[in-house]
Write a structure and sequence with these properties.
- By secondary structure, the chain is of the alpha+beta class.
- The protein has helices spanning about 40-50, 55-65, and strands at about 25-30, 35-40, 70-75, 80.
- A hairpin with a 6-residue loop joins strand 1 (about 25-30) and strand 2 (about 35-40).
- It is elongated and about 50 Å long.
- The termini are far apart.
Length: about 80
């Protein structure tokens, strides 16, 4: 980590998720607690709220792109996700 703090901005000064410079927050894996890197507060919060689940992130992206999916009710309380 650089002197005076940590960052993941590399030589460009840009953070890798939102592609903007900004202050950082320590990001850790929820399952192991291992520190992964430093992210901006908003990106770190988003990853945490989606529980580090790549499938949840893909569904969020699909939603933002206008590809809304709806689960198919198979039986009361039993849903099938569309493929």
């Amino acid at each position: 980590m650089p002197p005076g703090g940590c960052d993941d901005q590399g030589e460009t000064g840009i953070r890798p998720i939102r592609l903007r410079p900004g202050p950082g927050q320590v990001d850790h894996a929820l399952d192991t607690g291992k520190v992964r890197d430093v992210r901006c507060t908003n990106c770190n919060s988003a990853l945490g709220k989606l529980r580090d689940d790549p499938d949840a992130m893909r569904r969020a992206i699909a939603y933002l792109e206008g590809n809304v999916w709806k689960p198919i009710l198979e039986a009361p309380g039993v849903y099938q996700l569309p493929s």
